[in-house]
Request: fold
Amino acid sequence: MSRLGDFGSSGRPPRANPPIDDIRRTKEASMRRVVMLIAVSVLGVALVVAAGALLVPWGDRSPASRETDPIAIAERRLERLPNDWKTWAELGLAYVQRARTTGDPADYPRAGKALDRSLAIRREDNAIALTGLGALAAAGHDFPAALRHGRAALAVDPYRAAALGVVADALTELGRYDEAFATVQRMVNLRPDAASYARASYTWELRGDIGRATDAMRRALDAAPNPADGAFARLHLGQLAFGTGDLDTAAAHFTEGLRLLPGHPPLRAGLARVRAARGDTTGAVAEFRAVLTAVLEPAYAVELGDLLTATGQPEAGAREYTRAREAWAAEARNGHPPEPDPVLFAADHRDPAALDAARRLYTRQPGIGGADAMAWALRAAGRPAEALRHADEALRLGTRSALLHYHRGMILADLGKREAARAELETTLRLNPHFSARHAPEARAALVSLG
Reply:
């Protein structure tokens, strides 16, 4: 039995070769962003650990790939057995998985239709479809609904590891960490595979144990049954390494991930960050532009804007900021719920709307991301004493995030707490001196001013 809290003296979980879960956890234009956010969240790793994906590499739709494509397999079976409720549910799950890899929003409505068809055929005791509805709700950032569907699936089948994953992800996003960690533990105990190891990794990362987080993600890599799952693990291993300032290891993981899943935007964005950190601004800008050509992810546009501004190209940077604002505004008009990235961006640029957006986010997702957004928006609004309470809340698990420590350090500086501010900013740069093209120089300047 594998236990999150009992990996042995080395912190390593036992090796296993288990069967792979049938769903793993990384709407219209807004829903495609769930998978993209695995590269750009406030923690450096997704706030939702989307542990798994499509069996077919990025962009590969060749006839040969269809032999193992779960969507093609399900569709062929449904041609012969149109009332097969299990296959309709499996088709819905496969659409969710593919959307999370490709970012194609068209797969989400397809998933919903397939899952609804499954439930229309078999309303009772349909744990597979309920799990799929939970995953679909999580993709739309409706975490209360995801939790409800996941628990309904477990009521039908308490041993469905996929449903445990949906529940754990929802609890994490809702800031209910003790419950989330216990649920991940149950998942690991039940099925120690790529999906459960990836979630175990995230629980360690949230608690600041990067060594154990890395070990668990390596187990996910060992257990990966296909290139897409291997690329997922490589992406997160790269992000864990980058978060500690280990550029060589990060680059190696991102490069290997791209070999497994060619062209995948989050992996390419990871390499862009490495190039920027190494001083290769030209290469970083070109990589970010290529990524944005493939997918207009506003957070990537902000990173490019920060890089351009920091290297003496403020007008070009402003154009990227405008592009990000317009994309986020379009998503808000389409009903996309608030997220940390646009709130932090608004606070960075002293947008008066930042605080209201932060409150909506925090009300909906009162976890680390929501608390940090509240802290930063309150600081931008000139309310550092209130901001500090939320900054403390964001770090309550001991998360080793350079950005979280930077935010707290700047708030402490605003409050005149010079020694505490200096300690936080030194921690920030010790954790990762390359954490942000915008904020890393600001952290260094603040340290100089603090003396």
In short: Residues 6-66 have pLDDT under 50 and may be disordered. Residues 33-283 form a domain with the Serine Threonine Protein Phosphatase 5, Tetratricopeptide repeat fold (CATH 1.25.40.10).
